[in-house]
Amino acid sequence: MRIGIAILLAGFMLSGTSGCKDKSMASAGASKPVTLTLDWRPEPEFGGFYAAQLGGAFARHGLNVKIENAGGATPMWQLVATGQTDFATTAADQVLIARARGADVVALFAVYQTSPQGIMVHKARGFRSIGDVFTNTGSLAAENNTWLQFCLEKYQPVKVNVSAFSGGIAGFFARRDYSQQCFVTSEPILARAQGADPQTFLIADAGFNPYTTVVIARGDRIRSDPEGVRNMIRACRDGWRAYLNDPRAANADMAMSNRDMDAKTFKLGAEAQKPLIETDETRRLGLGAMTAARWDQLAQQLLSLKVIRSAPPADSCFLDGDKWK
To answer: Residue 248: what pLDDT?
Structure first.
């Protein structure tokens, strides 16, 4: 199912792109409550959304947004596709999988330009690259996700023993030959705080780099309320700009719901993710921007892995905000 993105973009431009940033830019129905469901608990990876709420960016753009958090195993694109939530966050590979299965979901805003997904190992092992994780003996705790499939195919012969990942970092302290999946903005920081000396490798360094923490919506929402969707993207951009400039207020708010992270950990996480969010490309195109070339590359990788049988056209997967911001 493909959305006529060119038509949608034309609708956006006709609806006005004067740069007005107050409630006057909102559509008449924009004050209707909408839900943004995040695919993990409150952590710095979502800081810009909380900043948009606390700082009034959602309200300034005529939006009444309720932020909810889902469990890690929740299929976010299915929640959106079935109308159980208005907006949600997921990763770009999941959007491609969803559209390949006929689900009408579209990416609107990509927080992470470089995926924070990584692997955490004990520094004492002396690994020099991510490939060393797979070509040496030991144990790797990881979910059976697309990035893992990519690495298992790329780094042959695989000698590491892959086991299920149950969350947390307790296993990391039990064995010196143990490595685990992580977000480089989270688990390594927690491990260092508890006395470990972790070394991290980004999955992106292996050549697999899907946009991550991507806001998605249904295609019918984009068609029926293009101005409201535009305002959502603009509010997200404003919120993330505010969070990157000063994360303290949003961190304090998130800490009220996430007692596993103290103020220092929130601060370090916010600092660690900055170069993954703001890049030369986003400085040119704007925070959250995406390109067709990146979507095409990812689609071809998923085809090669046989994760999808056919590649959805790139322009059906995302809205090119640079054309109408």
So the answer is: 98
Per-residue pLDDT for 266 more than 90? yes
Average pLDDT of the segment spanning 206-229: 97
Where does residue 167 fall: left (phi above 0), alpha (psi -120 to 50 degrees), or beta otherwise?
left
Q: How far apart are the first and last CA of the chain?
A: 26
| Angstrom distance (rounded) from CA 67 to CA 53 | 9
pLDDT(275) > 90: yes
The 3-class SS string of 224-278 reads HCHHHHHHHHHHHHHHHHHHHHCCHHHHHHHHCCCCCCCHHHHHHHHHHHHHHHC
Question: Given a cut of 70, is residue 30 above it in pLDDT?
Answer: no
Nearest CA-CA partner of 198 in 121, 146, 133? 121
What proportion of the chain, given as a percentage, has pLDDT over 90? 85
Compute the distance between CA of residue 34 and CA of residue 63 in angstroms, rounded to an integer: 8
CA-CA distances (angstroms) from residue 257 to 50, 66, 147, 325?
Answer: 12, 15, 29, 33
Give the alpha-carbon dihedral of 203, 209, 215, 221, to 10 degrees: -140
CA 41 vs CA 71, 73, 126, 163: distances in Å:
7, 12, 33, 24
Answer yes or no: is pLDDT of 322 > 80.
no
Element housing 175 (H / E):
none
Euclidean distance between CA atoms 24 and 118, whole angstroms: 43
Contact of 254 with 266, CB cutoff 8 Å: yes
Asked if 293 contacts 83 with a C-beta cutoff of 8 angstroms, the reply is no
**Taking the model in full, what pTM does it have?**
0.89
Structure tokens of 72? 């890690």
